[in-house]
Amino acid sequence: MSLPAVDVQRLTGLAHPEVHQLLTAAAHACRRHAPLSGEAVCESGLRLGVSCPVLDGLLRGGLPVGGITELSGQSGAGKTQLALQISLSVQYPVEHGGLGGGALYICTEDSFPIRRLQQMISEQANLRSEVPSSLIRGLRFSDHVYIEHAADLDSLQVCLSRRAPVLLAAGLVRLIVVDSVAALFRSEFQAEDWMERNKQLLTFSSMLHQLSQEFTTPVLCINQVNEDAMIEKNKQPLSSSVTPALGLAWANQVLVRLMIRRLQKTVSRGDQSSALRQLEVVFAPHLARSKCEVAVWREGVRGVAAFE
Amino acid sequence: MFLTLPSILEKWPCQWSSGASGRRASPSFNAGEAVTALELLQRERECGSITTFSSQLDHALKGGLPVGKVTEICGAPGVGKTHLCLQLSVDIQIPRSFGGLEAQVIFMDTEGSFVLQRVVDIAAAVVRHFSLLAVDGEQKDTMQTFNMESILSNIFLVRCHDYVELQAELLLLPDFLRDKPRVRLLVIDSVAFPFRQHLDDLSQRTRLLQGLAQQVISMATRHNIAVVITNQMTTRLQDSQSHLVPALGEIWGHASTTRIILQWEGSQQVAAIVKSPCCIDTAIQYQITSEGFRDANQPEITLTNRR
Lengths: 308, 307
Hints:
The structure holds 2 protein chains of 2 kinds.
Chain A lengths: L4 H8 L3 H15 L5 E2 L9 E2 L4 H6 L4 E2 L2 E7 L5 H11 L12 E6 L6 H9 L1 H4 L5 H6 L6 E5 L3 H17 L3 E7 L1 H8 L5 H21 L3 E6 L1 E3 L14 E3 L2 H5 L4 E14 L2 E12 L6 E7 L4 E3 L5
Parallel strand pairs in A: 4-8, 4-11, 5-6, 5-7, 7-8
Antiparallel strand pairs in A: 2-3, 9-10, 11-12, 12-13, 13-14
Chain B lengths: L4 H6 L2 H5 L2 H6 L11 H11 L1 E2 L4 H6 L4 E2 L3 E6 L5 H11 L12 E6 L6 H18 L3 H9 L2 H6 L1 E5 L3 H17 L3 E7 L2 H5 L5 H21 L3 E6 L1 E6 L2 E6 L2 H4 L5 E8 L2 E8 L6 E8 L2 E4 L12
Parallel strand pairs in B: 3-7, 3-10, 4-5, 4-6, 6-7
Antiparallel strand pairs in B: 1-2, 8-9, 10-11, 11-12, 12-13
Helix pairs in contact in B: 6-7, 10-12
């Protein structure tokens, strides 16, 4: 199938009708199923919830299971907090918004914030008050977060091509988090090597796509932001002056793009106070552009409902 | 199917264009058959066009997206390419009593961006729109059957994971079109995605794309269907400045009859028709709402700049 019909004809030395027959047979072999009608599409709208009704409402149920979701924001905006929370919420059964599996958390930037994860696990009962507490106690959260450190591109490659498929095939993992993609690609390449960088980015993203499709697993990638120094035309207007890093080559690979940023205000609740942040849907096939305010509490990230 | 001359004259052109009977009666394009320009003009009128639900874009395209032609929609991620495709997939099903084509659509999704929720939103908005418009008895009768279930059942979805699967589907498509003669729209969303990964050999990519272009063009003319292809954008360095250009290279640009580029200009979303045999180059504003693809709020501002 990867050759034009003329080449097939030349290579095999067959006549035109025979080549056509051969190609039709090959095409039937490639086809997974005949075209489905919209009613029969068993897409089922499976989503991975993020453990907060306000945010789930914003995302219409959560992250889509097939494809790459990008979460970008400045440092300290709360990207990792949300990623940690999602890697816990994936472990809930499907009726509580999870996918009933663990998470593979690939760190490239910093060491894994294990203490924060422990704190979030101990506060899960507060975050998910609607879930029966016996269920929460029954889940062994920290056993099901698989942490990988990838300090360079090669080790990331090994991790994704060898270890991730094993974990996914065994059904242990139903979520891949990469925190962050930008760190590696920004540090390893100089500005002149952008061709090489784009090629590596494509290889990396096609690996993620493959894993995501094969195991119907959502992929969450955390990205840094660029200060928008250059005035570029044709850019999507954002409510802040920063844009997600890694440029167009990466953006073309992303299915859902979320941005989180810190606002100047703070909110307080009881003895806790938190800087207010804003989570914005930049684009997504199933959502219109929208945003909502969120705050980070001891138990996790929560959307601030409009009436508060 | 035999008809007397008066009954042919009575028939409205768009009734000819959809449905199997119309196809069989109207002579199909045969290789080597010479036709006069007048005949061609008549055939093109019979083909009709698909409304985009944006009156400005419809106007710029002289009535909507042409059937029997290849249209390419390019744009940066998140600008609304997939939305426009979904909108068209619903719009092609508009009943004939409302001036639509009442046809079916096959949607080839390579990116995994076909989301049913979104189709349901757009379809609901369209159904609401026409149920408000229905005045006479015939239109009210059609509204009985023009509902969510019928819209969804008229969309055929194929998920292609890589370019091999896409090629295979296109090869099998003529058989599918023979079985389902009401299909009048083919959407490939997007063509760039599978061809930009896993293909290192650029000359092979060019040849494959060229073959694909020939295939869709022949499909569009022979089966008289509209073909909509989406494409990504890429950065090209020129005079040490970066420009956004449609991906897949210069040769691919010849594949489509009409090329529409969707882009952001400041806070406005602008659709620019950059290549078309029948319309002058124009740029119009649009917006993506929760109901689908619509005119921008200020319809009086129409940009006309040549590119």
